[in-house]
C-alpha cells in the first residue's frame, strides 16, 4: 500500500491521540467515555479541523466501514488537493448511523468533505499494520523467522496486488483523474 506523505505524517499523530484518550491515570479503559464527551464538543472541534485534523478525526473512531479496501488504499495515496468530492465516495466509505448524523454537522463547513476523507483515511490506517512494522516483518520472513509461530506467512500475491492497483487506477479515472503510467 502506497501512503501519501500527508497521511503518513498524520498516521502516528492519530494513533497517539487515540492512545491518549484510551486510559485514565489509573490505567482504566475510558476510550468510549472520552470519545462520547469529545463528540459533544463539535462546535469547538469544527474550529480545529484545518489545524489539527488528527485530533478531531478521533470523534469518528469506529464510525466508518470500508467495503472496497482497494479503492480506499488508492485514496490514501493522494494528497488533499487531489481528493475527490466526498459525495463520490459513498461506495468506498460508509458511515455508521451515529457517524452519519455527526458527519452532517461537518459537511456544513466548506472543508467538511475533505475532513471526512482525512478522518476515514486515518481510521482505515488505524486498522492496518504500520508499514514500518510490515517491513520489519518482511525482513524477518526473508531471514527465515516465523513470526506467527505456526509455520506460515501471509503473502500478498503479485497478481492480486496488480489487480488491486489496476482496480484503484480504474476508479480514479472514473473520478476524473488521469491514469498514472
Question: What is this structure's SSE topology?
Answer:
Blueprint: H1 5-22, H2 31-39, H3 42-48, H4 53-57, E1 64-65, H5 69-75, E2 94-95, H6 97-107, H7 112-126, H8 131-142, H9 158-174
Antiparallel strand pairs: 1-2
Structure description:
The chain is built from 9 helices and 2 strands; from the N terminus they run ααααβαβαααα. It is mainly α. It has a domain at 5-129. Strands 1-2 form a two-stranded antiparallel ribbon. The chain is globular, with a radius of gyration of 18 Å. Residues 133-157 have low confidence and may be disordered.
- Cα(first) to Cα(last) distance is 17 Å
**Widest β-sheet, arrangement of strands:** 1-2
Unreliable stretches (pLDDT < 50, length at least 5) are: 133-157
Into which percentage range does the β-strand content fall? under 5%
How many strand elements? 2
What tags apply to this protein structure?
181 residues, mainly alpha, two-stranded antiparallel ribbon, 2 strands
Nutshell version of this structure?
The chain is mostly helical. 56% of the residues lie in helices and 2% in strands.
